Amino acid sequence: MIFTKGEIEILGLCALCKDLPVETGGISEQEAIEVLLLYGLLRKSRSGLSVRVSDKGYDYLQSLGFDFQRDKAYLGKSKALYRRLETAKITKFFLKSGADVFKKEIVKEGMNNVFIPSFTFRRKSFSNPLGATQLCGFYYLRNTMFVPYFISKDNYGIHTEIEELTFSSKVFLQGHKPTVLFTTNGDISDVLKISQNQPVKKDKVNTNSFYEAIEKFRVPVAFITLDSNGLDVINIISVDNYREKLAKLILREDYATSELIDSDGINIKTNENLVIGFDSNTERMKRVIKNSKNTTHIVLLPFQLCAMQNYLKGKNARLHTIEVDAVEKLLKIDGRKFMISNKPFKNGKGEYAYVPHDKY
What does the alpha-carbon distance between residue 129 and residue 246 come to, in Å, rounded to a whole number? Predict the structure, then answer.
């Protein structure tokens, strides 16, 4: 039997993250984990919250040409473990988006479709450029850099100035334009709701809730889910100037630039503003509605509609939905299935990865 590319990627991902959550969020990942557990390359942790690479698994990865540092410390059920699992969920999310998550450092060239988890920097013994920030890493595309945060139900809030000062440094930006991503478990309603939880007091330090941070950050903020819907959103909002492009395609000859900075365009015949709301940034939508004399039209993806209806109830707005396939066609995006690959794995030398027997 030959391992698939997806199975080896999951094994490598677990070695990278040290602990991989039991709740994988996808059938294909769960099947890969079951196969790797069956052959002893992964093992269940004592906490029951994760799977970890076994000694046999590390030896096997090394035989394939991979070099992962073995985890020396078992965290147990602790804040540190939960933080590790949160970052692992986000790292797996970007792996499924097609990103390279295995780079060990930022390089000035080739930083396109690359996700570098925050622990890559924190594990360096000689420095920790991220300090006490809560960001979970950096997702680099051609011109954009997404900075994801995982919002726990019980959190200490966020220091937006410190966070933005860190990810806006030249060391991390590398010429990219940053966008902040807020996420957690569940659907988009859960992400928005949990983001509004008031922070737990810690050492008398005042922080903002994540939802309040929308107004504090000087860069775009989007809310996404760590599932196929979230992957669709990332695939769309990663297109340069996607909001302006879609507004022009929707309004056609009736399009004009709006005086409202948060609006994506205005219909010159009706004087009604248009908002492309795929970022689920309800505060941006509310600002346009508040400052518009006429009805504001907000375009959403179908899985965002219910949540936005609740947040914009009673507002002078009309909500419209457009299918993901239609958006991808308009923006000329190649559709992706966001499943781990079931093609046979080959290493850099073109060798297949056979299921280990007596040697391992």
Answer: 38
